[in-house]
Amino acid sequence: MYYSPDELCAAFVGSELIATGAFAEVVHEVKRHHDAHPNDLILIFDHKNSRPIEVDLRGSMEEVFERLEKQKKPLEPKVKVKKPGRPKLGVVSKEVTLLPKHWEWLAQQRGGASVTLRRLVGEAMKAADPLAAQRSAQQSTYRLMTAVAGDLPNYEDAIRALFAAEKDDFFNIIADWPEGLRHHIVQISEVAFDPSLASETQESESK
Asked: According to its UniProt record, what is one Pfam family this protein matches (predicted)?
């Protein structure tokens, strides 16, 4: 498993949030907690998809990070580049054939041809399935809640409200849940209740 030290994630013991932030920072706090409370079951999840992240906490703090360093995600993909410069954010360079008038129009757009093309493709993908981002956010929130909140009061009612996109009911239902968990759920569930927010995220990632 590869990881990025800047990837946002959160760590829980039961339904209690013990650390959140960049992966490297969270692992540091998780290791400290593990050393002080070795019998606690600690679960780490990434923010984007609420997928579990496994970390070997054996040994010293230095040993933990030495092992993680070997699993560090490459900063850029290994791709063949035909022109100077390398694509960022995992973008792969491939040939695109357009008429001169198309290239002229793209060159006049804010950010240039590449940014504009990514934005247009993103908008087309969203138009093809406008609720895809919402479903993804619902599933991410559901995975997190199932893993750490299954024993909390009104859990099933909260799940129903989540998939019905009933925002007010959902947050009223979880109002008495542990504060850290509640705040984390607010963060990861935004698009589940407002799909329009997904376009803002896509735009920021395309720049």
From this structure: DUF2239
